[in-house]
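Before going further, learn to read the protein records used in this course. A complete example follows; check for yourself that the lines match position by position.
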Amino acid sequence: MKRILIVEDEASLALALEDDLRREGYAVRVVADGETAAREGATERWDLILLDVMLPRKDGFEVCRDLRRAGIQTPILLLTAKAHEAEKVMGLELGADDYVTKPYSARELRARIKALLRRSGADTAATYTFGDAELDFARCELRRAGQPVELTPLEYKLLAAFVRRPGRVLTRQQLLDEVWGSETFVTERVVDNQVTNLRKKIEPDPDRPRYIVNLRGLGYRFDG
């Protein structure tokens, strides 16, 4: 399920966008100001950011600039009521991938989103290799030394969350939101149990993990 961050401070429009995109099968989160958008965009994994330009606390241009300076490559689709060509060009030069001018049709917006997701998906590696293991995203399969390793759906999603952000510390709450879903109520201890199970399948020595490293008081980091 593709994850989309909606950044829109007009409550009625944000609700309409959220409802429409959820019906299309996307996982959606809504934030209403630029500072929160910059933080969420830099610390969470998103497949696309739908970013309004006119925002409180920090405008969409600033958010876009900050994310690109931080090395975040998530596709950004600007929503703007500004009709001047220079402002559209500025958004693209700051790193936005596309823009839609308000008022727009829901059909056009959906088409733009799908096009951006197809484009970004084509640039995503089909496999990720670490040690003697290879995670095949297309087949949702883990192989070690060329042999398939059976993973539960939760173990696969957990491993995928790690390998998509190697070297980055992920808190237990971030993993809960991404793997189990933000609306699922389970304790953080569940994450630890699943990590233990996953280590048995990917680590040369599960008692002394090399890939999924525990940082006390912070979370986990994948060193693959």
Residues 127-222 form a domain with the Arc Repressor Mutant, subunit A fold (CATH 1.10.10.10). The chain has two domains: 3-122, 127-222.
